[in-house]
Amino acid sequence: MCGVLKPDELIELARHTHKVRHENGDELIGDSTEIRSYANVMRGVVKLSKVLEDGRQQLVGLQFAPDFLGRLFGRESVLTAEAASTVDLCVIPVPALERMIATTPALEHRLMQQTLRELDEAREWMVTLGRKTAQEKVASFLYLIAMHADPATDVDGHISFELPLTRSDIADFLGLTIETVSRQLTKLRQLEVIGISNNRTVEVPELEALRALCG
Fold first, then answer.
1. Fold of 2-125
2. Is 203:128 a contact under the CB 8 Å cutoff?
3. Fold of domain 132-212
4. pLDDT at res. 154
5. What are the residues whose beta carbons fall under 8 Å from the beta carbon of 105, sequence distance 6 or more?
6. Where would I find the beta strands (DSSP E) of 13-99?
7. Mean pLDDT, range 16-24, rounded to an integer
């Protein structure tokens, strides 16, 4: 948000914002709870999920820095947001941001751009879930994390990152079984497309090789 604001607008925004840190597993937003604040993700990974009436849960999305967290102009959350790693947020109350949006067209335009980008990404992910093979799904997931996990890193041929999800969460996100996810990760290691150490740290020697397996 800050990139489109003028100096006096940044000062006004800073008057209302505060930074908070959440640890892995903390609930950031509860499903069907009143929306009292919005946030920008400054660091870390947030997982979005939907809980059915019988308690079953479906992981429906991931957010990274500098994504906007919250349902703009909504009064009640329709998803649960949970920290999938250590997450730093810049939080602003709903009334303060909505007043700024009303008087700052550039800010409204930037938030609309993100909303449309998230819609495009959701449609792309529908293709991943509906048409790609198990290997392509796992490769696509790893590529997604590689491209977003650390916004301060210039992505070139080589990158490493921590998996922000458990094998169970990855399986849930991709519509696969845990066994299939583990099997496909092993195959990618055998192809030397990735390396895994400490069960969580992923090394990608050549990002283009991983991208080529995404379908």
1. Jelly Rolls (2.60.120)
2. no
3. Arc Repressor Mutant, subunit A (1.10.10)
4. 54
5. none
6. 18-22, 27-29, 37-43, 45-51, 57-64, 68-69, 80-83, 87-93
7. 95
